[in-house]
Amino acid sequence: MSFISAMLLTVASSQASPAIDINTDDYHIETIKNAIPIKRTSPRYPANAARKGQEGWVQVSYVVNEKGEVESAVVENSSGIASFEKAALRAVKSWEFSPATQNKKPVKQCQNQIQLDFRLHQADKGVSRKFLTRYKKLVTDIENDALENVPQQITELRALNLGNFTEDSYFWFAKSRYYNKVGDQVKELHALDNFIHQGKDYMKREVFVASVARAIALKLDQNKLKSAARTFEMLSETRGAEAYTKELFPYIDKVQALIDDKNRPIWVQGKISEHALWRHELVRNAFTIANIQGDLTSLEVRCANQYSVYEITQGIQWNIPQSWQGCLVFVHGRQGASFNLIETAAAVQQSATDKA
């Protein structure tokens, strides 16, 4: 049995869970006609980053309100350079739209995500000698299980002000290998996701393909089912990935059966990131929060034109009408706070739509 197969077999056993004591209520989610951009200015390249030859990317989620203005913009993820995050947020917040409409009335459009790349047109695509020397030492220590000083080496490599997408890709790959060695699969997946954003263009194909396959296995094990399916689609379109695709397909094929099995709650481990945020794509129409450790401040449901913010209370179930799937949940809190989001079967009762 291969390593990937062994990893994937844990999916079936990871669903065992205690009974959940919950209260139920219904929330009406509505459809929209999409907002149309009127003014969408590109972010200004930070001068200091340009002088250093730095490149990077930022993923932003935002809401377009009834006036066509952007609100509630948050950084979901990034390559880790703060000046790019600030520039991306500043640009997105200045955007203007013709608002979404429902029955010819303006409504909010709440499920908007974009990735902004900061790329220098004539940047050196290689790695610096200083970076390469430290990178080789770091990777050698990781693969030889000489891990004691690796966290400090990672910090020092990050402090070199990673210049371009090549160095950024190498950095996140090395970080993923370290977390693999120490058994931290949540951080390993985060590092792999960051590597996958750009690594296809800057690393050997076999390294990239193996990393994508590993990310799919981790997403399945952590019940990030929609993300796993999307990543698998990307893998299936990558040349040289045929063997991995064939091996993973039976597990991806069983995802819908898992979603449809209402007797089996889907448990997802949540942990607040350095952006004071955690994000999850729902595959069912109901969820609850449990086992909170640390400070959580609020929860958002962003689904079509429904944007609602709630205080977080354990034992409350959020129900979304069956016809409106594809919603996002954002949990805000202090970095490091952990919890479980449990996707459950929706309550069997009259919905808010029927009551209207």
- pLDDT under 50 segments (min length 5)? 1-31, 348-356
Q: Please summarize the sheet with the most strands.
A: 5 strands, mixed
Task: Please report the number of helical segments.
Answer: 13
Indicate the radius of gyration in whole angstroms: 21 Å
Q: What fraction, in percent, of the residue positions are helical?
A: 25-40%
Would you write up a description of this structure?
The protein is α+β, with helices and mostly antiparallel strands and 356 residues long. The chain has three domains: 23-29 and 264-355, Sandwich (Jelly Rolls); 36-118, TolA/TonB C-terminal domain (2-Layer Sandwich); 126-199, no CATH class. 38% of the residues lie in helices and 26% in strands. It has 13 helices and 16 strands. The strands form five sheets. It has a five-stranded mixed beta sheet with strand order 1-14-11-16-9, with no helix packed on it. A hairpin with a 5-residue loop joins β3 and β4. α6 (150-158) runs antiparallel to α7 and α9 packs parallel to α11. The protein is globular. Residues 1-31 and 348-356 have low confidence and may be disordered.
Q: What is the topology?
A:
Layout: H1 3-8, H2 10-13, E1 23-26, E2 36-39, H3 47-52, E3 56-64, E4 70-78, H4 82-93, E5 96-98, E6 100-102, E7 105-107, E8 109-118, H5 129-143, H6 150-158, H7 165-182, H8 185-199, H9 205-221, H10 225-236, H11 242-253, H12 255-260, E9 266-271, E10 277-281, E11 286-293, E12 296-303, E13 306-310, E14 316-319, E15 328-333, E16 338-343, H13 352-355
